[in-house]
Design brief:
heterodimer; A: 352 residues; six-stranded mixed beta sheet; 22% helix; B: 556 residues; mainly alpha; two-stranded parallel ribbon; 24 helices; globular
Chain lengths: 352, 556
């Protein structure tokens, strides 16, 4: 039935390269941060298990994973806040594994922003600038306030700012000593959805302007796909895949990555029992004949589309998106139908 | 900020409304307790209580309006400059001492893991159970031999003794403040180039400042108030002067005017901290994951243990051992009864005074918390009136109460033959004036910590105001309320100056016995009542710590 309509997917197309956003500036992007085989134990258990990846100058790598997958722990290990049992970290060509956090030149931004409540905004930003004299410090603070688009709040206290403003000040404080890399731990999670977008745009903009290498941790898949130059998926302490956002979304390495980054159904591969085919809801459609062996078990209106959950005759359950719009006549729960693949490209295959 | 001892020892995180600092969230609290009661009778009762407890203090302040110049001239010409100097020296030394000692011990047990850390965390609070006038005479006798009878009675030794008995106040507040802090502040500070030590000085300590100031304020009050310890060491502070003027000349006005000086110093102390704080906040929003504990090993762990244990030995174990040997000696030589009678009688007197005063404070405290709406101007004014007594040293309260009661007695409103001066009621009244604030603030803060959403849920489930208060708020705040009561009990048990001035004939408390024996340097005889005070005090401190630990569990 529906599986039959899927065409063979040629392996060769994976080699197509789309330039990274910074590749335009530099042919060979310099590696800023290199994480090699980092492993951390908590209570005798691997929380981070031999994780390796590089971050190029000016690149933003987003680590995404469910809570408890070890992504924040990895960040703390990179910052030198917690000891690791194995691996080493190289920053700008220098092995910093043995250095204490204060010697590493790594900026940190937390979800709860961790501004010092007893210091004014300017004193917060200037906290890491002890090596500068008074005048230079003042100029640097002004420059950073300008960067995060908050001139004029220098003399306020953190509690006198809104949540979004506090987060931008936290970024300014982290950027002030000119760190080699900035680590952001769920920086937007505590913000109101209504202002999250604005703050996100401003923060990313500020990072770009400084051409700062950055690692951002999130559990929000849309955030990961939208922000990252590359997206790294973590689960149970392991890094499963790291690649451009469209690559991890379209060509996930396994089922877990596939479902973490978006809704997906899995169809048996007719040619190989070891493989399965991933179908995003928009890759599937329902045949127009209005009959068949499959049944609609639930439906949801998403605005741009209707999302149907369909129980197929072989017992598997798939999600199908049909375009919405005023002229669409939705199917009802219980209706019989036939699901067919209508992807316009071969479905991606991954291990069953 | 952390204002009361119960706050300080409380382990629960403050509610988020307070933490994020948005006034709006706080104002919308639906707490039933503290919001109702618009009825006239209730308002009248509460106002009456608040005014009744504040009158003795206001009477004293009023006396300055018509100062008797002769008294001042004489005081100024003779003893006053010395008194001011001694008070200031003692105050500054003990404040610095307790801040250093209390903060470093608190940091030791919060930030580091070493053998005995858990038990030491609690043992280091126990000096609270030993009054300064007990520890004072133990040390006095111990050091008399090596230092000589003259030089042992010095202001510095007195300051040292007070520091050792009073540091637990700072310790408790500091520990609570450190526990509330988030490791992230330190993490960020370190990523910005601070070493662990520098992060402590630049971030941890400044953020704990209001709590430290809260603890220091209590220490300051105790030092200003103390009469027992300073007398032992021949230090003539203003509080001591009030007593001397009172007992020496019987000049009520002179004593009252001297008292105003004490109130003045207390107010200046509090104002200074408020001014210094300015607009800054000290609490952080967001997660309170707590500080990471660093595990010490080898010699460093041994050193940490040793610091803790030697502090405990010096402040508690040795003095108690000394008291026990004296008490045994007193028993053997049958000196127990010679000065002031038997232990059972004194113990019962002490317990009766402490129990009645505590119960009255608890009842009035609950009444005030239930009836006052602090968000309204009138309510906060009444609350301030009712808690005035705690900022006023004991001897001052005693004299204020005496003046008030004497005036009442003169009106002839009371039945014939009834006199308030020198009555049990009068004594309890004075103790309530002084310690109501402890109960009130403890109850207030623990009721305030009950989550607004819990109260709202109860209301929507159909519980009326009364039912919410009795079934939800009070049980949840229960541990805090008990803790506040225990604190009042500890305070009244150790209390000396008020009892000394106001006790009715035949009421001889344990502190009075100690006072009488030590005035004549009869250490051996002072040992028995001292031990009794320490023993009851230890039980109360243990109860306090247990309730607070337990309470933290039920709330979180």
């Amino acid at each position: 039935m529906s599986g039959a309509t899927a065409t063979r997917f040629p392996e060769a197309t994976t080699t197509v390269t789309v330039p990274h956003s910074m590749d335009a500036k530099l042919d060979q992007p310099q590696v800023a941060l290199s994480v090699n085989g980092v492993t951390r134990h908590i209570g005798g258990r691997d929380v981070v298990d031999e994780v390796s990846f590089d971050v190029a100058d000016g690149e933003l790598v987003v680590i995404v994973g469910p809570s408890g997958c070890g992504k924040s722990t990895l960040l703390r290990a990179i910052a030198g806040l917690d000891p690791m049992v194995a691996g080493h970290i190289v920053l700008d060509g220098r092995d910093i594994t043995a250095l204490p956090p204060e010697k590493r030149r790594i900026g940190l931004v937390f979800q709860d922003h961790a501004l010092f409540p007893h210091r004014r905004v300017d004193q917060n930003i200037a906290f890491g600038l002890t090596h500068l004299d008074r005048g230079a410090r003042g100029r640097r603070v002004d420059e950073l306030l300008e960067l995060v688009r908050l001139p004029g709040v220098a003399k306020r206290y953190p509690h006198e700012l809104s949540g979004g403003e506090q987060q931008r000040i936290a970024l300014a404080r982290a950027l002030a000593p000119d760190p080699a890399v900035v680590l952001l731990d769920e920086p937007f999670a505590s913000l109101d959805p209504s202002l999250r977008d604005d703050v996100r745009t401003d923060v990313i903009e500020a990072l770009r302007l400084r051409n700062a290498a950055a690692v951002l941790v999130t559990h929000d898949r849309e955030e990961a796909l939208a922000l990252g130059d590359r997206v790294a998926v973590m689960s149970a302490g392991k890094m499963l895949q790291i690649d451009r956002p469209d690559e991890v979304y379209e060509r996930p390495s396994d089922r877990f990555v596939a479902t973490l980054l978006g809704d997906a159904s899995f169809l048996p591969d007719p040619d190989s029992p070891e493989l399965t085919m991933m179908a995003r809801p928009h890759d599937l459609t329902i045949a127009a004949d209005g009959d068949g062996d499959d049944h609609v078990t639930a439906r949801r209106y998403l605005g741009a589309a209707w999302r149907y959950t369909v129980q197929r005759s072989d017992g598997s359950v798939v999600d199908v998106d049909l375009p919405g719009g005023p002229s669409a006549t939705p199917l009802a729960v219980g209706d019989a139908c036939t699901v067919v693949v209508d992807a316009g490209h071969p479905l991606h295959r991954l291990p069953a | 900020m952390t204002n009361t001892i119960t706050d300080a020892v409380d382990l629960t995180p403050p509610d988020s409304a307070e933490a994020d600092g948005s006034g709006a969230a706080r104002a919308s609290t639906v707490s039933v307790i503290g919001q109702r009661t618009r009825s006239w009778t209730a308002t009248a009762v509460i106002s009456a209580v608040a005014i009744a407890v504040s009158v003795p203090v206001l009477v004293i302040v009023w006396s300055i309006v018509q100062p008797s110049t002769e008294v001042w001239q004489e005081l100024w010409a003779t003893r006053l400059p010395g008194m001011i100097q001694d008070t200031a020296t003692l105050l500054v030394t003990v404040l610095v001492g307790t801040l250093v000692l209390g903060t470093s011990l608190a940091w030791l047990v919060t930030a580091y893991q070493f053998p005995g850390r858990r038990i030491l965390g609690w043992l280091l609070v126990t000096p609270l159970a030993i009054p300064g006038y007990v520890l004072g005479f133990v040390w006095l006798d111990t050091l008399q031999e090596p230092l000589g009878a003259r030089s042992v009675r010095s202001i510095w030794l007195c300051a040292l003794v007070l520091t050792i008995t009073l540091y637990p106040y700072v310790y408790l507040f500091a520990r609570a403040a450190f526990r509330e802090q988030s490791q992230r502040s330190i993490d960020v500070a370190r990523s910005l180039g601070c070493s662990r030590t520098r992060a402590f000085w630049r971030v941890v300590l400044p953020m704990a400042r209001p709590s430290l100031a809260g603890g220091a304020a209590l220490v300051g009050m105790e030092v200003l108030t103390d009469v027992g310890t300073v007398r032992l060491f021949n230090v003539s502070t203003i509080a001591d002067g009030v007593l001397r003027v009172w007992f020496g000349t019987g000049n009520r006005n002179a004593a009252a005017e001297l008292s105003v000086l004490l109130i003045g110093i207390a107010i200046v102390l509090i104002a200074m901290e408020r001014l210094a704080r300015g607009r800054a906040r000290f609490t952080q929003s967001g997660s309170r994951a707590g500080l990471h504990v660093e595990r010490l090993r080898g010699t460093r762990a041994a050193a940490a243990s040793m610091i803790g244990w030697s502090m405990f030995t010096l402040a508690v174990a040795l003095p108690v051992y000394r008291l026990i040997t004296w008490a045994l000696e007193a028993r053997r030589t049958d000196q127990t009864a010679t000065v002031a009678g038997d232990l059972g009688f004194h113990l019962m007197s002490s317990l009766r005074v402490a129990a009645v005063a505590t119960l009255v404070c608890l009842a009035l405290g609950l009444l005030l918390v239930a009836g006052l709406n602090r968000r309204r101007v009138g309510g906060s004014l009444l609350a301030r009136l009712a808690t005035l007594g705690y900022t006023v040293p004991g001897p001052v309260v005693a004299i204020g109460v005496l003046v008030t009661l004497a005036a009442l007695d003169r009106t002839g409103w009371l039945p014939d033959g009834w006199l308030l001066v020198g009555s049990f009621v009068g004594l309890i009244y004075a103790l309530v004036v002084r310690f109501l604030a402890v109960a009130y603030q403890g109850i207030e803060s623990s009721v305030g910590k009950v989550s607004p959403s819990v109260v709202a849920s109860a209301r929507t489930l159909g519980a009326g105001r009364f039912r919410v208060a009795t079934r939800v708020e009070l049980p949840l705040a229960g541990a805090g309320i008990i803790a506040a009561s225990v604190l009042v009990a500890i305070d009244t048990l150790k209390e000396l100056p008020i009892t000394l001035i106001l006790r009715p004939f035949g009421t001889e408390t344990l502190p009075i016995w100690v006072w009488q024996a030590t005035s004549e340097s009869l250490w051996v005889q002072a040992a028995v009542p001292s031990l009794a005070i320490v023993a009851v005090g230890m039980v109360l401190v243990a109860a306090l710590l247990w309730t607070l630990e337990h309470g933290a569990e039920t709330v979180s």
